[in-house]
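Journal club side-thread
Mid-discussion, someone asked how the predicted structure for our own chain would compare to the paper's figures. Pasting it here so we can look after the session.
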Amino acid sequence: MASEMEERVCAEIARRQGTIFELNNLIECVSKTRKDEVLFKMETSRLGSVCDLWPEYRDRHNIPVSKYTMVIILKEAVRKEKERINKLVDMLVNAELENRKHEK
C-alpha cells in the first residue's frame, strides 16, 4: 500500500504533467499564429471580487511579445516542469530503496 508521501508525490507529478500538456497546447497555438507578435495579457485585482464593482482597482497590462520569445518562454517552462517531475520520481525511487534496505 502506498504511503501518504507517495500519494502526494504522485498527485504532484500528475499536476505537473497536466501543466506540461497545457503549456504544449499554448506552444502549438502560438506557433500556428500568422502574426510575428502575440499579445500577453495580465490582469490582477487588488481587492478580489470587489473589482467587479470598481474596475479601477484592477490592474491590466497588455504586453506585445514576439512569437519567438513567447515560444522560448513556454519551452523553458516545460523544461522546468520536466526537471521537477524527474526530481519527484527520484524521490520516490530513493524512498523505495530505503524501504527495501530497512526490510532486509
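Post-session note: The chain has a mean pLDDT of 87.
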